[in-house]
Design brief:
single chain, Udp-n-acetylmuramoylalanyl-d-glutamate--2,6- Diaminopimelate Ligase, Chain: A, domain 1, UDP-N-acetylmuramoyl-L-alanine:D-glutamate ligase, Protein-Tyrosine Phosphatase, Chain A, globular
Length: 477
């Protein structure tokens, strides 16, 4: 945010109940939650947590340079305080005021949601928009009631585009997030089976995701996946113009964005022709992605549609997509090791759809490896996919079976559902076993072999990828 006095921040936060204790000092530009991230002049937001209370760390934040504290009570830090009843809500009110101010100036606000691919698409979209103007986007997957407003607090008078990634675990979550950042463009990537146990079914998942476009005005843009039936059904839930993206035949819309002549190289990086139809005219440009996986084509089309919706040209979008690099750790992170061995670290999170995408990417990579190493093997370390409810057993069996069907040579499964995954893989005729995370970390790879590591975040399989990488030597590519 732009540096300003506490009284100005209080004005932005209205009509929240706010009290200032201390001098009307100048704070900014940074707003931080972690005392270790405090910078000179920053505003430290003290958020109570399950294990620690941020209020206790206010003195350390001030020692690192923080000029004021946003809290629910006065701390031991000897600086001015903005007091609110709830600091998460206080942060939200601050973000809402800042975004309202900058949107009035002309900043465009874009939100991205979906059952899978949110962070990858957000990273692509940020790099597309950066080719046009100053862009603020989340670091990693800051997509909840804390991450969205914290990201929004980074905007200032130079920001042309704000990108918000929006996660949801139930009805009303995305509606709240959109109320903070007042979207001009809402993107729905897909409606899949992630968190289906929490949502209570795919229909409720679709309803929750559609909240990102429900509040858009007639001048806004709803960017929807034409290849996903649940997304197609959202057309009537918004008054906004519609930009369809996909590889199939799209319905009628104001903007149609598609990929033609899709191909992949031996590193599973896709190339395609970006085709854009608007007002009956079609323009096209070539795209060569640097991110890994055939599924990234859909993510790239979504990013392209959002970029076009805010005024970018087809050549600008295509060039930016071709230059975009991976930005977030443990998401399709390709590690090249000695003796042409490969580790595909996709361990940040997992759901049935992203699991399938990772396995297909591994199958494409090992096919390329076997051109140089005929005996190369593909080994998949697969962890639990969480929050799937009553469908957990069946969906984990589906993952094991798919690994075998795609030609993975060995499955090493970790977690509560490891036995189900391994049994399903063995039934399809491949080698499979249950292991602890420590045992999986001892895997050996022969020249040309591929190791895929994939599981939900809490399983911690990034430790497996890290351990194997350090042992055999490799760097991300």
């Amino acid at each position: 945010m732009r540096a300003r006095r506490l009284s100005e921040l209080v004005e932005l936060m209205q009509p929240a109940a706010v009290e200032v204790v201390g001098d009307d000092t100048v704070v900014g530009p940074d707003v931080v939650l972690d005392n270790r991230a405090a910078t000179p002049g920053s505003l430290f937001v003290a958020i109570p947590g399950a294990r620690v209370d941020g209020h206790a760390f206010a003195p350390q934040a001030v020692a690192a340079g923080a000029a004021a504290v946003l809290g629910s009570s006065v701390t031991e830090a000897e600086v001015p305080h903005i007091l609110v009843e709830d600091t998460v809500q206080g942060l939200s009110w601050l973000a809402r005021g800042l975004v309202r101010e900058e949107r009035a100036r002309g900043m465009a606000s874009i939100g991205v949601t979906g059952s899978s691919g949110k962070t990858s698409t957000k990273d692509l979209l940020a790099q597309v928009l950066e080719a046009k103007g100053a862009t603020v986007a989340p670091v990693g997957n800051r997509n909840n009631e804390i991450g969205v407003p914290l990201t929004a607090c980074r905007i200032d008078g130079t920001t042309q585009f704000l990108v918000s990634e929006m996660g949801s675990r139930g009805i009303g979550h995305i509606e709240w997030l959109t109320s903070l950042v007042g979207l001009d463009v809402g993107v729905v990537l897909n409606v899949g089976r992630a968190h289906v146990g929490e949502f209570g079914g795919v229909e409720r998942t679709a309803r929750a995701k559609s909240e990102i476009i429900a509040g858009l005005g007639s001048g806004g843009w709803a960017v929807l996946n034409a290849d996903d039936p649940a997304c197609r059904a959202m057309r009537d839930t918004t008054a906004a113009r519609v930009a369809w993206f996909g590889e199939g035949e799209p319905p009628a819309g104001d903007l149609l964005v598609s990929a033609r002549d899709v191909a992949s190289d031996d590193s599973a990086r896709a190339t395609f022709t970006l085709a854009v139809t608007r007002d009956g005219e079609t323009a096209s440009a070539p795209v060569s992605l640097r991110v890994i996986g055939r599924h990234q084509v859909s993510n790239a089309l979504a990013a392209a549609a959002a970029g076009l919706a805010v005024g970018m040209t087809v050549p600008e979008v295509a060039g930016a997509l071709s230059a975009a690099e991976p930005r977030s750790d443990w998401r399709m992170e390709l590690v090249r090791c000695d003796q042409d061995r490969i580790i595909l670290n996709d361990a940040y999170n997992a759901n049935p759809d992203s699991m399938a995408a990772a396995l297909r990417t591994a199958a494409r990579l090992i096919a390329g490896q076997r051109g140089r190493h005929p005996g190369a093997r593909a080994v998949a370390v697969l962890g639990d996919m969480l929050e799937l409810g009553p469908e957990s057993g069946r969906l984990h069996a589906e993952a094991g079976a798919l690994a075998a069907d795609l030609g993975i040579d060995e499955v090493v499964s970790v977690g509560e559902y490891a036995g189900i995954v391994a049994e399903a893989a063995r039934e399809r005729g491949i080698e499979a076993r249950v292991a602890t995370r420590e045992e999986a970390s001892q895997l050996e790879l022969a020249p040309g072999d591929l190791l895929l590591v994939k599981g939900s975040r809490s399983v911690g399989l990034e430790l497996v990828a890290d351990a194997v990488t350090k042992r055999i030597g490799g760097v991300p590519k």
